[in-house]
Specification:
The chain is α/β, with parallel strands linked by helices. About 25% of the residues lie in helices and about 15% in strands. The protein has helices spanning about 30-35, 50-60, 65-70, 85-90, 140-145, 185-200, 240-245, 250-255, 275-305, 340, 370-380, 395-400, 425-430, 475-495, and strands at about 5-10, 40-45, 50, 95-100, 130, 205-215, 315-320, 345-350, 360-370, 410-415, 435-440, 445-450, 455-460, 500-505, 510. The protein has an eight-stranded mixed β-sheet with strand order 5-4-6-1-7-8-2-9, sandwiched between helices.
Length: about 525
């Protein structure tokens, strides 16, 4: 049997529109574009939840958040759920992890004194860490820097301050990071991945290659800090003022009035919503530089696979856990209900001859991160667990057509209870379990349902940027009801079903997959 390898690339906080082959006006991703020329690009791919923990839980379990219920970064993941790594072990793989999964263990089966309950970077069960960033962010990276002869300050996070910080700099900066590019965490993750690949030449392998960037802090090493001209970067899509933006919904008003720049820049002061157009453009130029750095590093990985004769034996999947607002709607981060937080990249390059007819194509159908696990298992000839909410994307990759009864809309969820960093629950006067929203969206309309407040409804044909909700307007009442029913249909169809295909009978246990 031919050797089958998988390179599963997950960058953190990469917007779905930031790929050169999708026509982005500024950012350049030549290595990913070359990968896409040999594979398939999914143009309307959405994460199912934000931030990192919920998004990665959906990505690595194939479950919608309403089923896995890891609702925030620090919320435990129920131990009863299978995951991609557990299923890969059934196929004889020892799945390797470079990076992190942002998983908190189940406290019902894990001692409460376990140090993983004091961290944000624990790993999901069954992955074998070969390049972990540690239980807290980058705790293994900073000692590595020291070992390279680089001077690390007492507070290592000061390394993410700009060089020659000026007295008036309170956020976005064109100045470079104090860390040279060859010692950046992006280069470090890449080196860890290549080191692992060197050890696996004679056996099939599966590598989760994770990158922290373009996650903030938004500061890039030279030359990436000056690679893009802020004047060429798009201006943010937003209302005339943060106050006007917040009138759309109380949750949005809370965020535009509370998100600090310090979450995104080591020298940040004040609110993110107060950033002017020039500051947003500079932030975007830096963000694009961080993306280009990852693309360059992926060129190293792809080159290694080609040099060692493994390129034609390796499935490559490139994606992200969630997007980034980048100033759109006066927001920073991955938050709320706008597309910028949920639209993510997906490129699949299948080396088999069966995929020759689709190379270089782009898919317009809606796809979701819950489809990733079924796709990977399908390519390896493994069954998809019945509990999974997604479906394999291989028909798009090999046949160039959607499977029968493919979804016509996309779905995502957000939970904003006071558990990790959000204080929206208190600010909005809600009970903990009322702090939830869910979205159903197609080409024409977007419906946002809140557990304890009025919904939003957007006519995407007239208002593609979702500036003005038409919820409650008489002429949209019938259409809004249709989408509320779609939401209910979706939840009924995907209610947890691990055992719902089994039944007792006089002949014994019966099952239907």
């Amino acid at each position: 049997m031919k050797k089958k390898n998988v390179l599963f690339i997950i960058a953190d906080q990469w917007r779905g529109d930031c790929l050169s082959m999708l026509g982005h006006p500024v950012v350049e991703t030549p290595n990913i574009a070359a990968l896409a020329a040999e594979g398939v690009t999914f143009k309307r791919h959405y994460t199912q939840a934000v931030p990192c923990g919920p998004g990665r839980a959906s990505l690595l379990t194939g479950l919608y958040m309403m089923n896995h219920r890891e609702v925030q970064n620090t919320t435990p993941l129920d131990a009863r759920h299978t995951n991609l790594a557990l299923e890969l072990r059934k196929a004889g793989y020892d799945p390797a992890l470079v990076g992190y999964t942002t998983t908190t263990p189940d406290p019902r089966v894990t001692a409460h004194a376990d140090p993983r309950f004091r961290s944000l970077g624990a790993d999901m069960e069954a992955w074998r860490p070969v390049g972990s960033w540690g239980l807290t962010k980058l705790e293994t990276y900073f000692p590595w820097l020291t070992a390279q002869g680089f001077s690390v300050p007492e507070n290592p996070w000061d390394l993410f301050l700009p060089q020659d910080l000026g007295p008036g700099e309170i956020g976005a900066s064109r100045k470079p990071s104090r860390i040279p590019a060859h010692l950046s965490n992006t280069a470090w993750f890449t080196g860890l991945g290549i080191d692992y690949l060197r050890s696996t030449r004679n056996k099939p392998w599966f590598l989760h290659l994770g990158y922290w960037h373009p996650h903030p802090p938004f500061i890039a090493s030279a030359p990436y800090n000056e690679m893009y001209d802020p004047a060429r970067c798009p201006s943010p899509v937003r209302a005339a003022s943060a106050q006007a933006e917040g009138q759309q919904h109380p949750l949005l008003r809370y965020y535009v009035e509370s998100i600090p720049r310090s979450n995104f820049f080591q020298n940040g002061q004040g609110l993110g919503s107060a950033m002017d157009d020039a500051e947003v453009r500079q932030m975007r130029a830096t963000y694009y530089g961080l993306i280009r750095e990852i693309d360059d590093q992926l060129g190293r990985v792809f080159g290694y696979l080609k040099e060692t004769g493994q390129w034609d034996d390796t499935l490559i999947v490139m994606t992200s856990d969630h997007g980034e607002q980048l100033g759109d709607h006066h927001l920073l981060g991955k938050i709320g209900y706008f597309d910028e937080s949920y639209h993510v990249p997906l490129v699949i390059r299948d080396p088999s001859r069966a995929a020759d007819g689709t190379r270089g194509t782009q898919v317009d159908h809606f796809t979701e991160v819950v489809d990733t696990m079924p796709t990977l298992l399908d390519w390896l000839g493994q069954p998809t667990p019945r509990a999974c909410d997604g479906r394999s994307l291989l028909p798009f990759v090999r046949e160039g057509a959607a499977p029968a009864r493919w979804r016509t809309e996309v779905h995502y969820e957000y939970d904003f209870r006071n558990i990790s960093t959000s204080q929206a629950e208190t600010a909005l006067g809600l009970e903990m379990d009322e702090c939830a929203l869910a979205v159903v969206q197609d080409e024409h309309y977007k419906y946002v349902h809140f557990a304890a407040s009025a919904p939003l409804f957007f006519d995407l044909r007239r208002d593609p940027q979702q500036m003005n909700s038409v919820a409650g307007q008489p002429e949209y009442a019938a259409q809004q009801l249709v989408y509320a029913q779609k939401m209910l249909d979706w939840r009924l169809l995907h209610a947890e079903r691990t055992l719902t295909g089994y039944a007792a009978s006089p002949e014994g246990l019966r099952s239907r997959g």
